[in-house]
Records
---
Amino acid sequence: MTEQSEEPTHLPADLPEGASRRLRELEHGLFTSDLSVNEFLLIKEVGFHPLGFVMGSSIYHIGLQTRKWGASQELDKLTAAMYNARELAMNRMEEEAMELGADGVVGVRLDVNYYEWGNDAAEFIAVGTAVKAEDGASYRNKLGKPFTSDLSGQDFWTLMQTGHVPQGLVMGTCVYHIAHRGLGQALSSIGQNQELPNFTQALYEARELAMTRMQDEAEQLSATGIVGVRLEEKTHQWGSHTIEFLSLGTAVVKTSDEVTLPRPTTIISLDG
Amino acid sequence: MSNTKRSDLHQVTSDLTIDETLLLHSMDWEPVDIVVGASVAAIPTMGFSGSGWAGATDQSSQAFGSAVSSAVARIRDDCARAGGAGVVGVGVDFQVYRHTVQAVLVGTAVRPAGLSHRGQPFVSDLSVRDFILLHNAGWMPLGLAFGASFVQVPYRSIGTVFKQMAANTEMTNLTEAMYQAREQGMERLQSAAIGMGASGVVAVQYSDRPLPFASHVIGFTAWGTAVRLSGDGHRYIKPRVVVSVDDPTTLFDLQGALGTRG
Amino acid sequence: MPSAFGSEASSQGVDIPEAAGRRLAAKSFSSGLSVADFAACLHMGMRPVGLVQGFCAMGWNPGYYLPSQTAYGNQWQGWGSSWSGWGNALDTYYCPHRIVQSAEHASRGFNVEATGIESAWAEGYNATYRRLLEEAAALGAHGIIGITDATKALIGPRVREFHLLGTAVVMDGQPPPERVWSTYLAGSKLGKLYEAGLAPVSVVGAFAAVTVLPVCVTEIQEQGRWDTYGVVSPYGEITQLSDAHTAARRLARDHVKATLDGAALHGADLEVSEDNLVGRTTISAILRGTKVRRVRDVDPLPPPVPTVRLS
C-alpha cells in the first residue's frame, strides 16, 4: 500500500505518495469536501474554512484468540487489535490534516470493510473534512493535534454556540466472548422464565468496559465531557457468541460560559 | 355510552406528540385514551377445484368489508366507553392472508376539554394537525370510508401470448381488468362515504399490490376520512408563507439577510 | 429479589457491574444526546453528567408452564379455567356442533392471557430500569433524559436481553433529588413538555400476550375450510381471533394504566408482534411511554397559524 517516494518530502513516511501530491494541491487554495452547502455555510459562519477531504486507512489482520466454550471473558488480544487498527487509521487521517495545517476534522466517519481476498483481514478507514480557523487562533487539542469529531456541520455550529469546542473523536472497544450455557445449567433452568445472571453480567460488563475506555480517552484530552455517544455491537466474523462492543463519541471542552445560541422559542407548526 | 367521572379525567393515555397535545390544547380539546379495534374475517376457498383463488375475489372483497366495519365498530365502542368525541390519528393496518383478512385500528380518543361525550364518536385517520386545520375551516370528520376490490388477472391464451410477443401493443384485457378493479374499489369507498352523509373524502390513500401468496390476484384498497361541512359554511384560512433552507433546526434568517426585517 | 451479581457486588447493595462504578466516578461526563438535544438541555438548565444504562438477560420460554400441550393435540381442553402459572383464560368459545371433545375436534377454545410470560417481561424490564436508576443515582442526577430502548438479541432465541440507555442530568441549584425522574424525551420536545405545564415522572412500559387455543369453528375458518357438518358459515368474522387481537392491545394499555396512579401517559408507542412460540398463535403487545404529571396550569396557547413551506 505504501509506496516510498523518491524525493525526500516533508510528509511523514507513513502516508502514500498519492496523498502528498493531492495534499500539495490542496495547499494552493483549492478545497474539496463532502459537506453539503448548508454545512459548508454554517462552518464558514463560525469562522472556519474547509481545507480538504482527509482520510486514513489501515488493513489489519485480525487473528484468533482461543476462547473457552463455557466461560464469559474479554478477549483482550482481539480488543487490542480492533482498537489499534482504528487508532492507526485515525492517526493517518490526523497526519493528513496536520499536513494541511488544519485545526480539526469534522464529519469523521469510521468504517470497517471486509474483502473476499483477505481472510481475517479488515480495512479500517477514517474519512472527514479538515477545517482551519480563519482568525488564525489555534484550535488544536491538548496533544497538539487537530481535533477530530463525527459532528455534522450543523452540529458543529450548534456546539460552538453553546460555548463548547470539540477535542477529539474518542472511542472505547471491548471484544467479549459470551459463554455458551453449560450442560448442567442448561438442564436445571430449561424453559424457565428467569434472569440469567451470567449473561447479564457478561454483557453489562462488556458495555461498561467499552464506555469506560472511551471516557479514559476523553480524560487524556482533559475534556469536560463527551457528546453524541453511540454504542454499537458487532459480531464481525467471529460467530454469534463473540461480540465487539464499540463506544464512540465526540469529546468536548467548555471554553466559555456564554451561550450565544438564541433561546429557542416554542414553535408549533401546522405544517405536516 | 358511559359517563366518565371527573376523577378519571387525569388518567389519560395518549400516543400524541407534544406538538399535537399542545395543538389540541390550543383549541381547548384534550386527549383521553388510546383506543383499539381489531378484526379478523375468513375468506373461504371454493373447495378443492384446483382453481385456488379463482372466484374467491368476491369473497375476499366481502371479507375485507366485514373485517373493516367490525374493527371500526370496535374502536368506536372503545372510544365511547372512554368518553371521547372521536378518534384521531388512527393507524390503519391491513393484512391479507391466504384464508383471512386482518384489520387493526389504533388511535387516540379526543374530546373538548372536560366534556364527556354522548353520541356516536367519529373515527378518522387524520393527524391532529389536519384535524385542527379542518376543524378551524368549518369541517368535521364523520368516519373512515373504505373500499376494496380484488381482481384476478386474466390468463392470456397461448395464441394471444404469441401475437403479443413481438408487438408493442396494448394488452386490452389486462387493462380492462385492472381498470375496472380500481374503479370498483373507489366506487365502494365513495358509496361508504355517501352512506355516512359525507360531502367529501379527504386524504385518500390507496394501495394496489399482488397478494403475497397469489401473484395473479391484485388487491386494491382505498381509505380516507369522510367529511362534511358543519353549520356555518367554509371558513377561509390565510396561510403564512415560510421559506426554509433545508433542515429545520438551523433556519437562516432570510429577512435579516435581505434587509427586509420590519 | 436476589442480586444479579456476585457477593462482592451485593454486599455493597449495588446491582451494577464494577466497571460502571469506575466509569461513573470519572471527572468528565458522557452523554448520548445529539448536539441539538445537548444544546436544548443546557438551555433548560440541565447539566449532563453521564450516559447511564441498565441491562438484564432473561430466559424467555413462553410455553414453560404448559406441559406437552402441542404434542398431544388438544390436551388443554381438560384444563377448564385452571391455567396455573401459565395463563388466565379471558374468553371461552364453544363448539356449535354438539360433538364430544376429541383429538381431532376442539369443542372448546380459549383466549388465554399468558400471564407467566407477562410477569417474566415485567421482571426483566423492572430490573433493567432499576439498574438504570442506580447508575443515575450514583451520579447524583436529578433525572434521565433521552432514554432509548436498545433491546436486541445477541445471545439467542431463548434469551431476551433488556437494555435501556439514557443521559443522566443534574439541575444545578436544585435541592438533591428524592427520586430520579426519567423520560424518553429530550431536546425541544422535552422543553415544550415543560412549557405545557407538564413534568416527566418516569418511563413506563407494559407487555401483554394473548395466546389463541382455537375452538373448532376458529380452526375451520382460519384454514378456509367448509364445515363438513354444515353448521359454521365460512363467511364473516372470526370472532376468537378478532377478540384476541383487540384484547392484546387493550391489556397492554390497561397494564400501563395500572402503573399511572392518576398521572397521564404521554407519547405512547405500541409495538405488536405475532408468533408461534408455543405452537399456537400468540399476539403480544408492548406499550411504552412517559408518565407525566401536571405541575402548573397553562392557558390555552394562541391558536396556531397554518404555514405553507416553499421548498
---
Amino acid sequence: MGFISRGFRGKRRDTADSGRLPPGQYLVNDYPVLSAGPTPRPNLDTWTFSIEGEIDTPKKWTWQEFLALPAETVTKDIHCVTKWSKFDTTWKGVSFDTLFEGVETAAEYTTQFSDGDYTTNLPLEDLVDGKAWIVYEYNGEPLHPEHGGPARMLVPHLYFWKSAKWIRGVRLDKEQQPGFWETNGYNNYGDPWREQRYWGD
Amino acid sequence: MILGASSVTGEISLNPHEVRAFGVTSRGPLLWTQAELVELVHETPRVASLLFNVPDWPGHLPGQHVDIRLTAEDGYQAERSYSIASPPEERSVALTVERLDDGEVSPYLVGELRVGDKLELRGPIGGHFVWRAGDDRPLLLVAGGSGVVPLMAMLRHRAAASHKTSARLLFSSRTFADIIYREELDRLAAASDGLTIFHTLTRDTPQGWTGFTRRIDAAMIQQVAWPKEQTPAVFVCGPTPFVEAAADLLVGVGYDPLWVKTERFGATGASGG
C-alpha cells in the first residue's frame, strides 16, 4: 500500500454491499460474456452428461433424463476473474450431491469437460455439500447459449471460469490436471476472496 | 470415499493452493509494479493510447493483457484489465483505452491521467488469445471498435518480423472518425507485404468511402475470410454481440471452431469498465 493514484476518486458503490464484493471486483447489473471461442450449439437429442474416470460404473444421463432429476432453484453472487461481480443471480438445476449419490471413488480431483473442448479442474470437495450445480435455467428462462446453455456448471464460491459452460461431463481424477485457463496463466483454484486470479496468486 | 447428499468430505486432504502447471513454464506471482505514463496519444475523440514505462517488464506476447489498479486517497481501489497494444519489440507498454461515460476507470485513464503520473500494473496475462510471428498459417483478424487493440499488437509484431505470414484485418467501426489507429493501419497496408485491411462503417460514411458500409454479415465474411482449406489462425475481438456474430459466421463458412479464438468485452449489448 501507500501508492495513491493522483486525482482518482472512483465511483462509490452502496456500502451495504461492499462486504459482498471480493477484492478487486466491481458490481455490474448486466451480464457480461466470456468465452474462448465460438458458441457451441449442441443437439439436445444426442446431448448427454456423464461422470467418468475414477469410478467403477460411469454414469450417464440424456437430456430428458437430466431434466427429470430432482432440481433446485438457488440464488447466488457470481464473480468473474475479469473483475465483474453480479449479485443475486437465480438458477435452476441439479446439485452435484444428487449427481454423485452412491458414487464411490478414490479421486480427490475433477475435470469438467464441455463442448468446444473446454476443460476446467476442481478439487472434488468443491463440488459437494451444496457447493455446485449443473444449471439449465437462468432467471426462470432456459439458459441462453452465450451463457453456457443448454447446461453449465455453477460453482459460485470460485471465480466463474470454474463454472464451465456447455458442460458435458465430469471426470474424476486421482491427480490434479490443470484445465484450459489453468494452463493459460490462470490460477489452479481461483478463490475470489483470496484474489487467486493468476498463477502464483 | 463415498459421495452422497450428506457426505462428509473432511477426510479429503489436498492443498488447493498448490500450483502445478503441466506442459508450460511456471513462474512466480505477478507482482504489482508502478508504471509511469510517458506518452498520451489521442486516437479518436473517445479513445487514447497510453504508453507506460514499466520497470523490469518481462516482455509479452501480442494479444496478452495487463491488470491495472487505481487507489484513491482513502484506500478505495478499482481494478480493470486492458489489452496491450504495443508489440513485444517495443520498450514501453502501450494500452489503448476507450472512454466509457458511465465507467469508473476509463474516464480516469482517458481524461485525468497525465504524463508523469503513475499507476499500478501487473502482467502480462493470458496464454490463449496470443499470436506469434512464427505461426505460418494465414492470419485473419476481425475487430469491432476497441476490440482492435490486441489485434494491433499482432499487426505491429508482424510488421517487425522478418518473415511475414499473409494477414487480413476486417475492422468494424461506427464512423470514419471512430476508426482507431486509422493512419497507422493505412501505413501498414501500404507496405504491400501481404497485409490487406478491410474497413466497414456501421453508421456514417464519408463521401468517396470505398469500404463496406454495414454490420458484418455472411457476404462480407465470405469475401474477406481465407478459404477454409488454408486453415487460418483467427482472432476475433470486440463487444459481445459483434464477437458472437463474427464467430458464428466464421463457423458458418466451414472454419473449425478451434481455429477461432475470441475475446469479448461487455454484456449482451452493454459494456462495463
